Give the backbone structure.
Amino acid sequence: MKFGTGQSTPRVEDARLLTGQGRYTDDLARPGMLYGVTLRSPYAHAEIRSIDVSAALDVPGVVAVYTHKDIEAYGPIPCLVPLSGDVKTPRLLLADDRVRFVGDGVAFVVAESREAARAGAEAIYVDYEELPAVASIAAATAPGAPAIWPQAGSNTLFDWQVGDGAAVDAAIAAAPHVTRLRILQNRVAPTSMEVRAALGEYDEAAGFTLTTGSQGVASMRRELAKVILQVPVEQVRVVTHDVGGGFGMKSFLYPEYALVLHAARHLKRPVKWTGERSDAFQTDTHGRAMESEAALALDAQGRILALKVETWSDLGAYQAQFGPAIQTMAGGRIMGGVYRIPAIHNLVHGVVTNTTPVDAYRGAGRPESAYIMERLIEAAARELGLGVDEIRARNLLLPAELPHANGLGLSFDIGNFPAVLERAKQVADWAGFPARKTEAGRRGKLLGRGMAYYVEIAGGGGTEEHADVKVAADGLIEMAVGTQSNGQGHETAYAQVLSARLGVPLAQIRIVQGDTARMEVGGGTGGSRSMAFGGGAVLQCADDMIARGSALAAADLGGDVDYADGLFRARGSNATLSWAELASRHPGALDGRSRYQTKEGKPAPTFPNGCHIAEVELDPDTGTIAVTRYALVDDFGVLVNPMLVEGQIHGGIAQGLGQAVIENIVYDDAGQLITGSFMDYGLPRADMMPPAVVFETLNTPSPTNPLGVKGCGEAGTIGAMPSVMNAIIDALDGQQLEMPATPEKLWRLAQAVTGRKAA
């Protein structure tokens, strides 16, 4: 079929989005709508002695000011995986007696205009008593460090581990060679193009309606109703229209989402809050922020004997919704990657600091684990005098060894890692690198090459998904799916799956998401789960449609029917019925909801994997770099839309490259955010991207879902961070450095390289 699966069909969303017809939360206006602004703490750690809002209430246009005492009946923002046990770190909607990071909400002002709300916030007087702050892992874990949560007894809230520590220690002690690295992974801000916004409405009969850009309305509705508002779920509706990027950050609840609902009920008018970019830097969950001590034990031939990793993970001031799980259950179990490693031990310490909470960011722990492993293995290759490709080839799991239990609770099911590695070398022109390095040297440049082979766990965040279909009298098939597009092209990809199964054109299909009034269940989007689970739900729903339609058509046509290409045909005759005709004859009878569940209800992740190869040219006189070549071969299973997949890869590479060379959230010792705007926080630009990205796939279909797909949304980031950094280290003759590889760092290190070569 022309627009079925496997085709690079142009996105159906683009006609709307490129002509300015997209609907984002801040585009919405309601009659009588009010505007909210949050007053935020200027201190990283302080006691609140008193709050005086009287002057704010006198500001023209201000209609209400809320502090904690006005909303203390509501629950805190929940941490869904509190690894700290009985020790809780509740993030209240507005701080009561203590603030714990710069940006913590203290008051919420509602006014007739944004300007009046801002003026009202500025008029509030808060008497703070500043407390000592700890704004880094080192400061938080130092002896005698001020306690952020005194009831915990320490700023280290938990110690999580997986693997066999005794076996690893014994192997390291006996190993002929051990490579050790201290690896830092810089804190980054998600910086979505669309800042967060929320519109709250309340109706006595219908209850609350929250409209916000999210990565899944069903889970947001559930936690908002049950934990925060403490009302029946049926009294809350959550709506998401178009979303301008999420990257994990828009999966979560934030205080403003409940505050606009409270204000709307109290004032009996709609209330909208739209964050400024400064709000985003201060309060949107950050990513990464960790320090690791890693050791890789090898024999004399470069075969891996054991891997030991100990990580201190910065949680920020509060345990965010999924924050404790990111470096533990999400990323910690994938440590070691695609390699044959007899013994692994991974230990993670969860540390609180007086900084913005840290949670999932594109890849959610898997880029971090891949980065550690791929930095280690290239360092080991240099120490042993092996090629970075050769050391990987000696340790890659072979197809015959799969499925493979990795010793951390995961089992890699299918893949051909050696074939992907070899193909990546071919498309990267591996053999031509020495000549390119020589030519760069003639121009006074240092050329380096880095490789990264990753595997990730995708789609492990749930066991089921739902799809709901309605067929109109004109034959239009509207299918609601429980995931949420954030720009990935779900409307196109799901429609392609449905089109291929039903044999109807794309124009006859409409995919809808993001309204709990239409679809109140669903796992949302995150962890690269959408096509495996959402696509499975679409297939199941299509099959159920055909079954219902066949029964109706058989009754109408008086005998058995066959279905193909959008028509039900009576056997032995030319009599047919279309979807439109059946829907007209039997209104609502074709409609229905389907549930896609993996076998035995267990999580059935996919394991996308791939090899990325970057070449980086470093100017030793300025410390600037250029990514001159970038090639990759990935295994994504079956590709529903190759063009959409490639787009995801390009975006992921940009984010991985950004973290590697320019992005960095910085706090001073007092917990003040130094990089709180785009004047101070660097984002990758178009001119930083490689001139071309050579992208191929060498696929093995996943056995865990009916489409055979593997998640692709985060792979580009996972591969880019280590491949680019390994290339930079190679250009520096193996000198280790940490992200971001800024020009100042590179200039200093390059001087040593050029000095040695001159000598």
